[in-house]
Amino acid sequence: MSELRGATDIGDFLVSARSFDEYRAMFALTDADLHGRVLDCPGGGASFTAAARARGTAAFAVDPVYASPPRELVARLDAELARGSAWATANAERYVWDHYGDPAGHARLRAESAAVFARDLAACPGRHVAAALPHLPFTDGAFDLVLSSHLLFTYADRLDAGFHVAALREMARVGAEVRVYPVVDQAGRALPDLLASVLAELGGAGVEAEVQDVPYEFQRGARSMLRLRSAPTRTGVRGAGAPGSGGRMRP
Questions:
Q1: pLDDT single digits (tens) 83-130
Q2: Which GO terms of the molecular function aspect are on file (predicted)?
């Protein structure tokens, strides 16, 4: 892990552990949204998949970090929680603390979420698929909803427009609907040029996209998500195989 590198840059891609309630708020999720098949992409150390499963949702998570042995991943997540908490505390003025109370409450909630994730990873490893955008090992239309938080736009300093378009099109391929949060970068800055370019490319590819307000703001200025919809293209299984084998899987 690298050190915190400056006022606008948290450093390496952070493996976080957001909670189910945070997901509900930042993606404006209703009970109806959780009735089908849902993919968390990238899932990191979030407890969303475990908590959604407990409520009857056919939930899965995908992330390249799941290629690590579970014990190593959990140890890494502990370090990442400390790094994320240190960043949020050092930059407290950039955040709205209403949802958590204060930095200590935020750290406590994330630690609880990470513990739920660790138990679920040990008990049900098949729910956590090792793969990375812009290539997902699932059939077309495998999910009713794909959720993606704090990767696209957040790391616009290192992920270019081409990557954003490819990643969004891939998520739209595997999901009937895609929700991406937030649409600002690490410093809370709006990205009008990047967003306009991405929307134009998606529209040309037949993917409907709109920016929609959500009832959540932790990072100041992060009050909206990008919502994508495309025509259903479910084709059934197009090959068998585990992630990484070159085949496509259908959860």
A1: 999 999 999 999 999 999 999 999 999 999 999 999 999 999 999 999
A2: S-adenosylmethionine-dependent methyltransferase activity
Q: Starting from the edge strand earliest in sequence, which strands make up the sheet with 208-213, in order?
A: 128-129, 58-62, 37-40, 143-149, 175-181, 224-229, 208-213
Number of helices (H) and strands (E), helices first, in the chain? 6, 7
Torsion from C-alpha of 15, 191, 163, 79, nearest 10 degrees:
-10
- Is 248 inside a domain boundary? no
**239 occurs within a structural domain:** no
Distance CA 44, CA 22 (A): 14
Residue pLDDT, tens place only, 159-182? 999 999 999 999 999 999 999 999
Q: Is 233 helix (H, G, I), strand (E, B) or coil?
A: coil
Tokens of 6: 């400056």
CA distance 51 to 114: 12
d(CA 225, CA 175): 16
Total domain count for the chain?
1
